[in-house]
User: Fold this.
Amino acid sequence: MFESVAPRPNDPIMVVMEKCKADTRPEKIDLGVGVYKDSSGITTILKSVKLAEEMWNREETTKTYVGTVGNQDFCKDMLELMLGADSQALKEGRIGAAQTAGGSGALRLGAELLKVAAPNATVWASTPTWANHIPLISDAGMRMGSYPYYNRETLGVDFEDMLTYLDGHAKRGDIILLHGCCHNPTGADLSPEQWDRLAPFMEERGLFPFIDLAYFGLGRGMKEDTYGLRKVVQTCPEVLLAASCSKNFALYRERTGLIAAITQSSEKAKVLKSQFGAIQRKLISMPPDHGAALVTRILRDESLRKIWVEELAEMRERVLGLRQLLSEALNVQGGEAMAAAIKNQNGMFSTLPLSPEHTERLRDEHAVYLMPSGRINIAGANASNIPRLAEAILAVH
Ligand code: LMR
Assistant:
């Protein structure tokens, strides 16, 4: 039966993660997989999560099924957090949502809904984009294309090229996949002014926004990180939103996320929610509950929420501090462009102008792990190893 089955390579992020885990050099620096780490290199469980877990353990009375659309209180609270409690779409009940198995589960459910709603449309993704976007979405049967986004020379967004390309290639009804903030893998985000132009651009051309919001709160602040999403929701008649609690609640393995379809009427929202439920049923039946129960508990309990807001700010400020330090350390002859980009970019990632050969040398000669594309997760560094990291980057560059 299995004789003809050949091994399959894992995606590059998982490959780097496994290689780094196996490396026994004590000085190794892990800038690979996108998880937040504290200054001792540990991905701790948040205090707010621990406290919520203690309460939940005392109070939870059943493990019976929640349902195919998962915890709807969680969806409501998360939508309020991202869109603002005064969101018209929320107030008018124009959002159909389902809890999902992490942000990846959300993207997959979104793609499956697109397959039902617009099977012949193309989903356009930025160049580059997260390593799992294309496999996840194309595996649902959607055709995919790429639009220009990151310029590896200027280390910034080629916004005019992006608009010109989409104008010439994307057809009415096509889907534009956008990173709401903290672009993965580049850290190069659209500015508020660019979102202000992109939203009406999509609306006028009948392009459908699909926003992936996996890192909100870890860029410049909760409001700043949701600016683009809010602008698009105010401007475009229909939007898909995939969100994750992996990073901002540090719930990684608990697989906690949601998919939301923002539409024009509460009746249509109910239809779309029923679609999410039916699709999820056939894929995994129901999402795992634990992480969503904790997030709901945190967001509804004033003191837990306060602790979480502070913890999130601490993570964000640590990342910003590391950006500043790495930028200063790289700001020598030959490193100026990298230094400027690292300082201006958002979230945990930056893509440096390094080739796969450079990244191999960084691994073999300096015990520095990063993606072959040049992506680094800045949260994997710390104040004491940044000078060595900067030296290593400059040495191979
Ligand atoms: C990453 O980009 O490294 C993270 O989103 C983790 C993952 O699942 O790829």
The chain has a mean pLDDT of 97. The longest helix spans residues 302-330. The first strand starts at residue 29 and ends at 30.
